[in-house]
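Postdoc handover notes: sequence design on the structure in folder B. Input tokens:
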């Protein structure tokens, strides 16, 4: 598994990089060279934020944790990633062909901590249709704020593609521009 470590506002030394690689190394035996892990570390106040994004077979899993100590935050983030995989165990097992690495991880896990076999399948409870109107990203942010939503889907007037603006946890805004 390819592991990329980057620091935003912090320098990551080789010793820290090696310790992080050791902690996320548990995923390597299940996913091998097929997957990649991106570990981002950034300071936020007096705490360190560790974000791990795992890309595997075109699927993305992401977890984030905060702590005063970097290695503790890494441990908590790895635990969250494992928890996400276990929580979705039933879905992964139903789609074995789409998630072979994750299924191997779950089977070799020896039936760890918990399993949500009886969990009901998630269902769409509401559908909403709306017209896409061409607008700029700034106009979309204004609409997002006026509606009081966390995200807003719109047709970008410059690129003529469907885009999404969303509120970020840090108080800023994000823009999703799909490639198709």
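Designed sequence:
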């Amino acid at each position: 598994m390819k592991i990329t470590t980057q620091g935003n506002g912090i320098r990551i030394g080789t010793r820290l990089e090696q310790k992080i690689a050791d902690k996320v190394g548990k995923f390597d035996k299940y996913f091998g060279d097929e997957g990649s892990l991106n570990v981002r570390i950034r300071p936020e106040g007096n705490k360190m934020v560790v974000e791990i994004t795992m890309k595997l077979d075109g699927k993305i899993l992401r977890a984030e944790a905060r702590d005063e100590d970097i290695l503790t935050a890494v441990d908590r983030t790895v635990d969250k990633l494992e928890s996400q995989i276990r929580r979705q165990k039933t879905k992964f097992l139903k789609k074995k062909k789409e998630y072979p690495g994750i299924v191997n991880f779950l089977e070799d896990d020896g039936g760890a901590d918990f399993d949500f076999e009886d969990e009901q399948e998630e269902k769409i409870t509401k559908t909403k249709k709306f017209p896409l109107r061409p607008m700029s990203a700034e106009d979309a942010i204004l609409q997002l704020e006026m509606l009081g939503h966390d995200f807003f889907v719109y047709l970008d007037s410059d690129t003529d593609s469907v885009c999404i603006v969303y509120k970020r946890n840090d108080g800023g805004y994000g823009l999703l521009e799909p490639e198709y």
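Context for whoever picks this up: The chain has two domains: 2-108, 134-176. Don't rerun without checking with the PI first.
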